[in-house]
Amino acid sequence: MKRRDFIKTTGLTSSAVMLGGLNVAKGAPIFEQFAQLAKAEDRKLILIFLNGGNDGLNTLIPIDQYGNLVNARANVLMPENTILKLKDDVGLNPAMQGMKELYDEGKLHILQSVGYPQPNFSHFRSTDIWTSASDSNQVVGSGWLGREIYSKHPTYPTNYPNTDFADPLSITYGPFVSPTCQGPSLGMGMAITPNNQGEIDIYNINSGGIDEAPNTPAGVELDYVRQIINQTQLYGDTLESTFEKGGTMKSRKWEQATDGNRLIGQLQVTAKLIAGGSKTRVFVHSLGGFDTHANQVQAAGDVEGAHYNLLRMVSESVSAFQDEMKLQNMEDKVVGMTFSEFGRRILSNASNGTDHGSAAPMFVFGSNVIPDIQGTNPIIPSKVTVQDNLPMQFDFRSIYASLLKDWFEVEGDALNNIMLGEFQHLDIIKKTGTSAVNTALDSDSLNIYPNPMNGSGGNVKVMTESGMTIISLYNARGQEVQRLFEGNTISASKEVRINTNELQSGNYHLRLQTGNRQIVKPVKVVK
Amino acid sequence: MDTLLHNFNTKDQVRPEGVIPKRRNGLLIEAGLEKYSGTWGRKQVKHLLSRCTFGPNMQDLSRFEGLSFDKAIDTILDFNETTPLPLNYNNQNDPYAKIGETWVGTPYANNSVGQRLNSFMARWFGNIVGSENNVGEKMTLFWHNHFVTQINTVRQPNFSFSYYKTLRENALGNFKTFTEKITIDAAMLKYLNGNENVVGRPNENFAREILELFTIGKGPQIGPGNYTNYTEDDVVSAAKVLTGWRNLRDTSETKYFAALHDRSVKQFSSAFGNQTIQNANGEEEYKDLIAMILEQDETAKHICRKIYRWFVYYEIDEQTENNVIAPMADIFRENKYEIKPVLKALFSSAHFFDNWNIGCVIKSPMDFIANIYRNIELEFPDDVNGQYSAWLALGVQYAAVQEMILGEPPSVAGWPAMHQAPSYHRFWITSVSAPYRAVLGDYLAGVEEIKGRGFTLKFKELALAEKTSMPSDPNQLIKDLSDFFLPLELTELQLEYLKSNLLPDDLQDYQWTAVWTAYVNDPDNEENTNIVRYLLRNLLRAIFNIAEYNLS
User: Is B41 helix (H, G, I), strand (E, B) or coil?
Assistant: First the structure.
């Protein structure tokens, strides 16, 4: 049953009808008890990796900062009148018509300025950090979803597939299982590449001659090769038949997509597998090309170009997928999320491109997300220098942890174990019982004085909420330079001191995270 | 289930960046870079040739067994062929190159980019599959995986060929001059936007990668924007040094434009002893940068680790770091970054020939494919069209479906199997690549003729069997063939499995001997010969598909 019908038949008032299809005003209560959640084990998480570092400032554009953006990046900036407005002060890149529609339908949740405290501008290291969910000074060999899957299937691959779990534990489109799904020692799932017709067609391997492997590194690798061959043989048949069962796709948006969309085929296979009854819970898709050092617009001031094309691929793919799920009556089973290893620099370069940067927005989509833009527009300085970057508003691991908790129903110690620590909970998924859309803290919950401050430092006065609180100072490069406070708090006022002895003059940001809310405010040091 | 919570937050799973992990099975390998002094027999020859070349044939093994150890190593390091020019093999529309002639050096032809790239990739595979028994092609591919460019981003076949020629002709040369050449190489300038890096608002793409990947490598992040071996500020300064270089349209020459060069003093961090760079001759400034980076010990170590992972194994524990990598790096520095002495030390070392290091590398798609053709001595056609078409269809494309495209690694860091912890080589064998490996083995063993547009090849299975020590004895035949193809000795049970393929349906040993003997006596007896071929191909199909054939 579609939610709209459901609401009509239960005779609810018009304020509740809004949540069926329209965006909910900021701060308005949501009647979440009506969210139709599938059983936890039937829920699926759709990941889309924007490989290369997506230019966040050109994806979700802070319109109230437009003047300063012109100073910093006129050659790559979208003309103001082309921006797809979501709210008065913020909008999407014109390529993202499909995402705009999802937002209007109340199926899109956007988080502003997601990152981590010590950004690393290496694609490869930062991808490791995002996929493993590690601290930036740690190396973790497993992926965050690999750990989640492992905790449910600790004996994999022995006796897998079986009647309860006939489908791969996760599916990655690409040459190998995504590091996101890497378990403590093995990839917790399967990698597939659909053939030229977009079908799953896995050759039947006839390999034999297995005996105990020698106790040497060669033996260890031999066991690994055998296991891959074996799993490919066993899962190959199931995958093909589930795919067949998926039947003909119903949405017209698949065909309406622009030619050359390199992402949409992956999502279509996922849609077909889900329609065919796949029990796989995690699907990892990826699109490369976001490393737009040059020509992200075809010429300065143009709308179209490499970045526009990429965002259109994402938008069309998500939109078609979501539409298909709706037509298949599967919408309540799926939630999707985009991620990228980093954002890009505020200042563009002379080749109509942007170099590696820090925080960027994340999109979470589906009929079960709370429709909102969480966080505030980043503040763009009037004068931007080459290394300037956005401070993060949200740690990416808060989003992971919140999805694990509210979508996959992983709780307490099990959650902290998978996440390798405790992270701020964010309201992203609709759920029964609870109240409001999470919003940024009010401006007066964080007071800095004096501001600007000189060499003798200053004070930060905050109103904390109950839960974990972190107060940090970020420099203009988006790097955390001082952690002023970290610990559990109650609702109270709190004061901490900033020591500016070691700081150079310049623009900084103060970030307060308390309970499930946060705020970032500029602060200047003038010595 | 909840009570049996697996703790993910352990020292094995979560370690500070920069801490060297232990080997997975806790193994310690005592042998270091000292010269190997053990047995020099078939097993060692096979190991040397499997790792340093794209696979030996049976005669190669015998020939190397007859060489002294030192002579064998010298032969492996002897590579100084010129690079053959790729030819236009079937493109009637190329305005500048007739069929049978090379397109290299002719102007850019918009209508022929795809065909020229095919010709380029095919020629590259031809060089690999036809190479002599030396390390040249393996090192060329190593450098491609190191100094990465992608043909589809460059979209200039002349640039890509010139880049490839530089890789191949410097593969065993001097790393410093090699790095200098690559820095201003046309394909590289285009690939990493060096050609758009100008004074004022520099493009950092190449500057970051030369530090992070091509030379010194990234260390642990020890402070905001500080990666131990360099900082974010160093990336910005390096970008300024590199401003001013451009490629030209129709030639692979590149040119320095003084007006586009940043003439300021470039300040580097304490990782480089707070040095500054400002050369009155801006055209030479990039060489100062490379010299400064190569002065750092870490640069030599970074390159040596990559060489180690390419030729030995992916796990580098503390012991290997101390006993192998560090002395390799010393040799590299002492020899002013000459590449050959490092390879010589590694290939002659006790560590390289240690039993623990034999058979543990998972073959790359290129290795698997070139190995199988070279192992079975598949003869490629002589005519240009047939030759290039076969190289393309049987080589380039079979590797491409396994996600390894010559000229097109997936990113500037190269193939993940060579750098992505903790899986490394394991990324080569996946649910995507394994079926294609099976397809190839089944196809070669299954078809009478290997056919494609423009070529017909034959797998001469009888000739292969005839080279074994006693083909009339099925047990000896199986033993010889499995020893030849596989890096590990098979168990009795495994040999039984192979035998059930050679002799299906309860056929007996004597029956094989009978048909083989009949074949030797009268090869023209088609009926008997076909039985022999059928049985033999059954056996070979099983060998190509056994898991061990994926190891080297």
Answer: coil
Rama region for A452: left / alpha / beta (φ>0; ψ in -120 to 50; rest):
beta
Show residues of chain A in contact with B498, CB under 8 Å.
Answer: 209
> Is residue A25 very low, low, confident or very high in pLDDT (cuts 50, 70, 90)?
very low
Residue A203: which of B24, B25, B439 has the nearest Cβ? Answer: B439
pTM equals 0.91
pLDDT of residue B4: 54
Q: What's the CA gap between A84 and A104, in Å, rounded?
A: 11
Euclidean distance between CA atoms A114 and A120, whole angstroms: 14
User: First CA to last CA across chain A, in angstroms?
Assistant: 64
pLDDT band at A2 (very low <50, low <70, confident <90, very high): very low
Do the beta carbons of residue B164 and residue B83 sit within 8 Å?
yes
Rounded-to-integer distance, Cα B327 and Cα B33, Å: 7
User: How far is the C-alpha of B339 from the C-alpha of B510, rounded, in Å?
Assistant: 54
Angle of helix A3-10 relative to helix A14-21, nearest 10 degrees, comes to 170
Reported ipTM: 0.96
Whole-angstrom distance between the N-terminal and C-terminal Cα of chain B?
40
- With 50 as the cut, is the pLDDT of residue A360 above it? yes
* Confidence at A37, pLDDT banded by 50, 70, 90: low
Residues recorded for chain A: 527
The Cβ of residue B198 has, within 10 Å, a number of other Cβ atoms equal to 20
For testing contact with chain B, the best of A266, A351, A356, A422 (most B CBs within 10 A): A351
CB of B151 closer than 8 Å to CB of B118? no
Q: Give which of B476, B480, B498 is closest to B58, Cα–Cα.
A: B480
Interface check B152 vs A, CB under 8 A: no
User: What's the one-letter identity of residue A114?
Assistant: V
Pairing type for strands A467-475 and A84-87 reads unpaired
pLDDT digits (tens, 9 = 90+) for B338-390: 999 999 999 999 999 999 999 999 999 999 999 999 999 999 999 999 999 99
- DSSP code string of B470-513: -TTSHHHHHHHHHHHH-SSPPPHHHHHHHHHHHS-TT--HHHHH
Share of chain B above pLDDT 90, in %: 94
Among B19, B430, B438, the residue with its CB nearest the CB of A191 is: B430
pLDDT value of position B250: 77
Place of tokens 């076909």: B530
On the question of a cis peptide bond just before residue A452, with omega within 30 degrees of 0, the verdict is: yes
SS3 content of chain B, % helix, strand, coil (to 5): 55, 5, 40
Q: How many helices (H) and strands (E) does chain B have?
A: 25, 7
Residue of A nearest to B315 (CA): A217
Question: How far away is chain A from the Cα of B420, in angstroms, using its nearest Cα?
Answer: 8
Compute how many other C-beta atoms are within 10 angstroms of the C-beta atom of residue B353.
22
Output DSSP code: residue B170.
T
Half-sphere exposure (Cβ direction) of B149: Cα atoms closer than 13 Å: 29
Tell me the angle at which helices A396-406 and A412-419 cross, rounded to the nearest 10 degrees.
140
Instruction: Share the mean pLDDT of chain B.
Output: 96
Retrieve residue A69's tokens.
């953006």
Quick one: tokens of B179?
């790095």
Among A residues 345-364, those touching chain B with beta carbons less than 8 Å apart: 347-351, 353, 355-356
Cβ separation B204–A293 shorter than 8 A: yes
Q: What is the pLDDT of residues A254-285, one digit of tens each?
A: 999 999 999 999 999 999 999 999 999 999 99
* Mean per-residue pLDDT, A313-325: 98
Question: Cα separation of A162 and A238, whole Å?
Answer: 11
Residue-wise pLDDT tens digits, B488-499: 999 999 999 999
Rounded Cα distance, B473 and B496, in Å: 14
Number of neighbouring beta carbons within 10 Å of residue B102: 17
Q: How far apart are CA A456 and CA A4, in angstroms?
A: 60
